[in-house]
Description:
The chain is an alpha/beta fold. The chain is 27% helix and 22% strand. It has one domain: Rossmann fold (3-Layer(aba) Sandwich), CATH 3.40.50. The protein has helices at residues 3-23, 80-87, 109-123, 141-152, 213-218, 226-231, 259-270, 293-307; strands spanning 27-39, 42-52, 58-64, 93-97, 130-139, 155-160, 163-166, 183-187, 245-250, 275-280, 328-331. Strand 6 (155-160) and strand 7 form a beta hairpin.
Amino acid sequence: MSKSARMGWAALALGLALVAKAEAQFTIKTVPNLTYATVGTKALLIDLYLPQGATTTTPIVLWIHGGAWSTTTHITKDNIGHITSVLVPKGIAVASLNYRLSEEAKWPAQIQDCKGAVRWLRANAATYNLNGVIGAWGESAGGHLAAILGTAGGVGMYTSGAYTADLEGTVGGNPGVSSRVQAVADYYGPTDFFRSAEGAGHFAWDVTKADFPPNMLIDGFVLQNPDKCKSASSLPFVEPTDPPFAIYHGTADDQVLIEQSKFLDSALKKNNVPSTLTILTGAGHSAAVFWSAVNTKTVYDFFAKYLVPSSIGLVNQSRGRMTRPSVISRSATSAPDYGWGNAHWNSAGRILPQ
């Protein structure tokens, strides 16, 4: 048999294997309350939902809960049922973590916890029949953190002006293990703390008040801390090697305005990063329609497209690749400027059109 014929048969066999894997329906094996890190006296926990009986190693999606960085845990969030039922039966494992909330730790503790969880999953992949290929999916505050995992997954020390933050940290250990993810699904997460664009509908938050969740997260007023805001926003870190994004937002969202998702989608596309923005007309923040069979299937299809091929040997892909140095430093001047220097605020703290 010629070499080309052998390659053709190999490609056919691989395709059939992928189809079979996609059609397989696994039961869900739950491994709850694993400690991925201990910070002080607090144990940070992660639950795993694994495809029971999978004969090959599987990719995993890290679910990051919402709640304005101040409420909810990985255990109590109802949406985990939607996520596991969509992904796990078809061979994509799920992990659900808790992270330190803004009442107990300020930024960048939350992204350090998420990156610590990614490193833990990768370091312990063999124990749970995983292959080290990881996606991230989050809603609201969790979407914010998932997006930063995507755009700043390999960033350690970050400096903007006089402010410096360690966006990698050492939570959970596993130094030298990559915190990069290979695909991101972002449900209505804020992407740019310093800009809250004017838009149709009523905006529920007043950014000049202390109880504005981003103010609570960064331990200061966003209007007075633009450099700190940059470190807590996914937008300034966008670059061509970022992983693919699937972004979802509703037009009636009065908690996180839809412009936040439009900002990120536009920046990703300008950098030739695969990104889709699904706009749900009339949907508010955390609306049930986001968890409809139609929308969750598109999320599964997205992860299947970008994670499942990686599980058969294409891990060293250019976008979100794990071969990139696991931790790099970044300064604000090394990232594109997406309008930070041109913000003009009105009395309500919202940006005015230029």
